[in-house]
Amino acid sequence: MKSDFWTYSAIAVLSFSCTLFGYLALSDNPQVGATLGFIVGSFSGVLLSKFLVISEKNYEALNQTINTIKTSHISVNLNRLYQTIETLTKAKHPQVSTRQNKSIEVSWNGYCSEHDATQIKQWLASKDSKLIKSHTKKKVDKTLDTIALLIGDNYPLVSDLMQGIRNSLSSETTHFNLDLSGATTDKINVITNVCSQLQNLGLIEYYYHKDKQSSKKSAYISPFQSNGNQFLTGQWLERYVYQIVTNFLEAKEVAYEALMNATIIKSNQQKIEIDILVIIQNSPLWIECKVSNHQRFISKYSAFAKQFKLHPEQMYLIVLDLSNQQAEDLTSLHNINVFTSDKITDALQSTLTFIQNQA
């Protein structure tokens, strides 16, 4: 309303000014001058009014745009957009490590050679034994250990995958299908991640299929007979345990030596293979890892503990797929420490306490 008043006022002033100017300019014929001035003033007024209307509309549109920006919380929307992009990135490259042994941050530790295992050799000599060989360093170690940590940290999610691979390699079955229709997103992510990395190393052939119509999801896995068989059928657990143990001792700033896949020979020429042998502050820790069939070996390890005079805190048998009650019963019966892979740091803490009390 206020805008219309000023518009009409401007038109009236312009018309009056032009009429007066025409009247004075043509003094010989003032009527003609006034008429021409009025026509020019009226025409200019119409043009002015149209210009003002267009300008007002543009101003209102501009003002509305500014208000929309102010009220739309653009910073919030940009933040939401960033979060969406980040979510999509994580979905493409899923982070699936859940760290069962949560008391330590794991970084990769290389393997000690037998030439550097001075304290281990001294302890073996005190038991009438000698070190023959141990794990030889390889360029592929870090890659295999990374996969082993991924499997070990998420074993409850990949147990059926690893069991299927073991069964396939030990039989004439060339492939198997893993039904993932009812699986959680985390399970699918970790299985596809593990399979992709194993495929990159040429250890398996892998294909994931999702049927959009039936919502059925499945993974086709075909393990290859290769140099990676030992890793697939159980060595991944040894590598996982080695990294967890050495990282725990590093974090505690405890002096240690550690060998994986050590072969020793006693004075009676008996050869013994040890998955992981550690010396912690001059005290031994003997570790065996079994992904299956632990019943066949537990009596043998119990006998070794007696031969080398090891307490349960110095002799571990780490077994997969074992209930807490089973672990407690086996520990009590065979006098060695039996537990699952997620209890490693708890066992190590007890061992450190035992060693410190023995000192």
From TrEMBL:
Residues annotated as domain Card1 endonuclease: 229-295
Official protein name in the record: Card1 endonuclease domain-containing protein
Keywords: Membrane, Transmembrane, Transmembrane helix
Transmembrane segments: 5-26, 32-53
Keyword Repeat: no
One Pfam family linked to the record: Card1_endonuc
Organism: Phormidium yuhuli AB48
SUPFAM superfamilies from the UniProt entry: Restriction endonuclease-like
Cross-referenced PROSITE patterns: PROKAR_LIPOPROTEIN (PS51257)
